[in-house]
From TrEMBL:
<protein>
    <recommendedName>
        <fullName>RNase H type-1 domain-containing protein</fullName>
    </recommendedName>
</protein>
<feature type="domain" description="RNase H type-1">
    <location>
        <begin position="67"/>
        <end position="187"/>
    </location>
</feature>
<dbReference type="InterPro" id="IPR044730">
    <property type="entry name" value="RNase_H-like_dom_plant"/>
</dbReference>
<dbReference type="GO" id="GO:0003676">
    <property type="term" value="F:nucleic acid binding"/>
</dbReference>
<dbReference type="InterPro" id="IPR053151">
    <property type="entry name" value="RNase_H-like"/>
</dbReference>
<dbReference type="Pfam" id="PF13456">
    <property type="entry name" value="RVT_3"/>
</dbReference>
<dbReference type="InterPro" id="IPR002156">
    <property type="entry name" value="RNaseH_domain"/>
</dbReference>
<dbReference type="GO" id="GO:0004523">
    <property type="term" value="F:RNA-DNA hybrid ribonuclease activity"/>
</dbReference>
<dbReference type="InterPro" id="IPR012337">
    <property type="entry name" value="RNaseH-like_sf"/>
</dbReference>
Length: 215
């Protein structure tokens, strides 16, 4: 059973679902094995340039950018996932912060977080042009032209299909300093324990959360 609530936070509507909703994640047992078997055949191909070593850089006027991240903490039976879609003014067009049950490694969690961000864009009919993550392996695998073996990389296939559906033209790795907002969203489930959704809000709305970076 899913319990949904809505509350106002500085004029923004925040949707909350029970964390128990995520206790039935499909194919959770298969994700880790498939990731480990496929990672061996892929190598690093992209690194952030010196020009990327800055705070978040806004997309071009009329474009949207998706940043995503994962947070994994020892002793927890879930990971934190965060994703934010922002426009050229920095306004948060859509953002999520949610727990996902499972003991996933960080690198696999990066893929899960990105996929959730793309699903967010698709569900709200948003055209996202640019994607940024702070994991080199994630960007490398997604930009690789090497064929994938069998269905071992179904999660990457899902992401690439979503890239086409939502209009992504660029996916690159950036330093953590350029991805702080998404990282803060990924850390939030460890204090809130809830699934949160924001639409069309100013980043300053998030300043009410302690240790939250809106850069």
């Amino acid at each position: 059973m899913v319990r949904k609530l809505e509350k106002e936070s500085d004029g923004a509507i925040v949707t909350i679902e029970d964390v128990e909703t995520y206790s039935k994640v499909p194919r959770v047992g298969d994700l880790l094995l498939e990731y480990q078997s496929t990672r061996k055949v892929l190598s690093l191909a992209t690194k952030p340039s010196a020009a990327d070593s800055r705070t978040w850089l806004a997309p071009l006027l009329g474009c949207l950018k998706l940043n995503s991240d994962v947070s994994v903490k020892s002793g927890k039976d879930f990971i934190g996932i965060g994703a934010a879609i922002r426009d050229s003014s920095g306004k948060v067009v859509a953002a999520i912060s949610k727990p996902m049950v499972g003991n996933f490694p960080v690198e696999l969690g990066e893929f899960l977080a990105l996929r959730e961000g793309l699903i967010l864009a698709k569900s709200h009919n948003l055209v996202v042009n640019y994607v940024e993550v702070d994991a080199l392996n994630t960007a490398s695998m997604l930009n690789s032209v090497k064929p994938f073996l069998g269905d071992a990389m179904f999660i990457i296939s899902d992401i690439k299909a979503l890239f086409i559906e939502v209009g992504v033209i660029s996916c690159k790795a950036v330093p953590r300093v350029s991805n702080k907002f998404a990282h803060s969203l990924a850390n939030l489930p460890f204090s809130s324990g809830e699934d949160l959704l924001w639409r069309d809000v100013d980043p300053l709305v998030f300043s009410c959360f302690s240790a939250f970076s809106i850069k």
